[in-house]
């Protein structure tokens, strides 16, 4: 304890976003916390986007999910997100994804654990959205797998980071409309030939850093279904919402 106290005097805790001093490790300062856009209150039970209302227990779905389910674009049962993809949350996602800030996976995994709590049961298996091997080689890590790994540590869930694999090197989808996103990801994700069997007969929670249209989650969920997953849910660290 003395060594720990001495280290805190020499290296005081810093905000994970801006570097200002904080009272606790792996935390946000007051300004960054205020600008993070954490999702609470009433949300869409299918994708986690905020809805008008304060009742977090009320079950409802947004118009996009009602339409998407009818078109087969929401092949999962429930979904959640920790924050809106803007301001502090967006900066942290980009730092984790492109800035080699792998240290962020630990605190952001805590955000995920809070958001995913309604989706996790005693036998839930955590499975990250995969990267294509070319992109994984360039980036050196899969940010979704880092997040799901910390989520597993914090919740005690089983974790299979390679249950799915991406066999098509899809290009970045920013700026594409919804139809183009779904078309680009059709067949891009499949069960791993050896590890995919871990999903058979189990509830599976698919983890990713960002949900935009839901196309990536849909591709991953269909692959999990082909591997025999029985109950599929999804959770994203950040959710792109219409009003952002």
Account of the 3D structure:
By secondary structure, the protein is α/β, with parallel strands linked by helices. Helix content is 35%, strand content 15%. The chain has 9 helices and 7 strands, in the order H-H-H-E-H-H-E-H-H-E-E-H-E-E-H-E. The strands form 2 sheets. The chain has a 5-stranded parallel sheet, with helices on both faces. Helix 5 packs across helix 7 and helix 8 runs parallel beside helix 9. The longest helix is centred in the middle third of the chain and has 13 residues. The chain is globular. The chain starts with a helix and ends in a 5-residue tail after the last strand.
Radius of gyration: 18 Å
Distance between the termini: 44 Å
How does the overall form come out from the CA principal axes? globular
**Strands in their spatial order, largest beta sheet:** 1-7-6-2-3
Strand content: 15-25%
Report mean pLDDT, rounded to a whole number. Answer: 91
Along the chain, the helix and strand elements come as HHHEHHEHHEEHEEHE
Helix content: 25-40%
Low-confidence blocks of residues: 3-7
Largest sheet: 5 strands, parallel
Q: What structural class do helix, strand and pairing data support?
A: alpha/beta
Helical segment count:
9
Give the total of beta strands: 7
Summary?
The chain is an alpha/beta fold and 244 residues long. The protein contains nine helices and seven strands; from the N terminus they run αααβααβααββαββαβ.
Topology, pairings included?
Elements: H1 2-10, H2 30-34, H3 63-70, E1 78-84, H4 87-98, H5 105-116, E2 125-128, H6 133-139, H7 143-155, E3 158-159, E4 164-166, H8 178-185, E5 189-191, E6 203-211, H9 215-226, E7 231-239
Parallel strand pairs: 1-7, 2-3, 2-6, 6-7
Antiparallel strand pairs: 4-5
Helix pairs in contact: 5-7, 8-9
């Amino acid at each position: 304890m003395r060594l720990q106290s001495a280290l805190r005097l020499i290296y005081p805790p810093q905000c994970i976003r801006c570097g200002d001093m904080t009272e606790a490790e792996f935390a946000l300062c007051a300004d960054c916390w205020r600008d993070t856009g954490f999702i609470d209150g009433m949300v869409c039970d299918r994708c986690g986007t905020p809805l008008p209302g304060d009742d977090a227990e009320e079950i409802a779905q947004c118009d996009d999910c009602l339409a998407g389910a009818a078109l087969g674009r929401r092949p999962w049962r429930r979904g959640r997100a920790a924050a809106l993809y803007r301001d502090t949350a967006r900066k942290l996602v980009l730092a984790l994804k492109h800035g080699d800030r792998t240290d962020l996976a630990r605190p952001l995994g805590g955000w995920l654990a809070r958001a995913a709590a309604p989706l996790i049961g005693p036998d839930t298996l955590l499975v990250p959205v995969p990267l294509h091997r070319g992109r994984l080689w360039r980036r050196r890590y899969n940010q979704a797998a880092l997040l799901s790994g910390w989520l597993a540590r914090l919740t005690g869930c089983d974790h299979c980071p390679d249950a799915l694999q991406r066999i098509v090197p899809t290009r970045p989808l920013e700026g594409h409309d919804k139809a183009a996103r779904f078309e680009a990801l059709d067949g891009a994700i499949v069960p791993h030939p050896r590890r995919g069997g871990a999903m058979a007969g189990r509830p599976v929670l698919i983890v990713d850093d960002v949900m935009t249209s839901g196309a990536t989650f849909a591709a991953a969920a269909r692959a999990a279904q082909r591997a025999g997953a029985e109950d599929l849910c999804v959770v994203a660290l950040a959710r792109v919402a219409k009003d952002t």
